[in-house]
Write a structure and sequence with these properties.
By secondary structure, the protein is of the alpha/beta class. The chain contains ten helices and ten strands. It has an eight-stranded mixed β-sheet with strand order 9-7-8-6-3-4-5-10, sandwiched between helices. Helix 1 runs parallel beside helix 2 and helix 5 packs parallel to helix 8. Magnesium ion binds next to loops.
Length: 331
């Protein structure tokens, strides 16, 4: 175990040395009071089996229940650091808040509902020993999801991968083991509109996928409804693709060419057969179609512009309201 000096850098005050654990766990939690204590216990039991030292960073993402208190109570027994964000900032930001505070040589991100079987950790660590800097879980099947959700997911990833320089695997999870170098690279990215599944791929490094079968949620309900997923999807598309912005040039050109050809045809027809006044239906269709196409393109522009706006404002992605370092001495 390495020792590293951290703490406030005040003149004349020696920073407290803090041991660097082999493994840090980051657990984002939103209203998980029924799960969090058991999750911490199981993670700690598995970690003790696999590594010499570890820490667990629980990030309470603005829960309205007793998640934070439940997590803090575990700090007496296990090396748990508890963070409370000032409100709900979303899973992506909660993960970042946790990652920034980890000090372990490697970091595992884990959901609080134990859907991801911890039994895979051993294999993940083995892959790390082989030299992989990132070992991520991909779900083996989506049988549990409804048909429309599966169709949406497939469409979303197809659209996403159309414009992204790095392939973003459709079934990858946040559940992953990352080397310290990967975590540092992720933390160094300045963007506020974060789509973690894209960023993991963007930072690169030697990566390995491990197929897993998800277990049902331990307690409570999923926090990702259609609205949240849709917003996350938009963040992903706007931060990893530019083709929705550019596609309008081609669409506009295609419509212009068609209009010119149609115009020529009308001139020719008038010359050959004379003019017949009707044509209002063509006009109405053309005007409303073009109106629709223009509004869509402006909407797409607006979506990107809104993201640029949030970046320019420079507000932090999250605000930490409370941060309790681990006080338990590791047995
Ligand atoms: N989560 C969070 N903030 C949110 C939404 C979710 O921290 O705004 C956490 C949640 O507590 C859980 C993890 O993210 O630990 C995954 O959420 P969930 O299980 O609801 O998603 P699903 O598994 O249904 O995709
Ligand atoms: Mg879940």
């Amino acid at each position: 175990m390495r020792a590293e000096a951290i703490g406030p850098r005040m003149p004349g005050v020696l920073p407290l040395p803090r041991a660097v654990p082999d493994l840090s766990f980051v657990i984002p939690a939103l209203n998980e009071e029924d799960n969090i204590a058991e999750t911490i216990r199981r993670v700690a039991a598995e970690a003790r089996r696999l590594v010499a030292s570890f820490e667990i960073v629980v990030v309470d993402d603005g829960s309205s229940d007793a998640t934070f208190a439940a997590a803090k109570a575990q700090a007496a027994t296990f090396p748990v650091r508890t963070l409370r964000l000032s409100r709900n900032f979303g899973k992506e930001h909660a993960i970042m808040a946790g990652l920034e505070r980890t000090i372990g040589a490697a970091v595992v991100i884990l959901d609080a509902d134990l859907q991801e079987p911890l039994g895979h950790l051993e294999a993940m660590l083995a892959h790390r020993a082989e030299g992989f800097e990132m070992v991520y879980a991909v779900r083996a099947g989506r049988e549990d999801e409804s048909l429309p959700k599966r169709a949406f997911t497939r469409l979303f990833y197809a659209m996403l991968n159309l414009g992204s320089d790095t392939a973003i695997p459709a079934d990858a999870r946040d559940f992953r083991l990352m080397d310290r170098r990967v975590v540092d690279a992720l933390c160094a990215l300045p963007e506020r509109n974060r789509f973690m599944k894209g960023l993991y791929g963007w930072v690169g490094f030697r990566s390995k996928a491990v197929p897993i079968r998800l277990e049902p949620r331990r307690a409570g309900a999923s926090k990702f409804g259609f609205r949240k997923l849709f917003r996350l999807g938009l963040t992903g598309l706007t931060s990893f693709t530019a083709w929705p912005l550019r596609v309008w040039t081609s669409i506009g050109m295609a419509i212009a060419v068609c209009s010119i050809l149609y115009g020529l045809w009308i001139v020719l027809r008038t010359l050959l057969f004379g003019s017949d006044v009707p044509g209002w239906s063509t006009l109405v269709v053309a005007v409303s179609l073009l109106g629709g196409v223009q509004l869509i393109s402006i909407g797409v522009l607006g979506e990107y512009l809104a993201r640029v706006f949030t970046e320019v404002k420079g507000r932090p992605g999250f605000i930490v309201a409370e941060d309790h370092p681990a006080d338990a001495q590791q047995p």
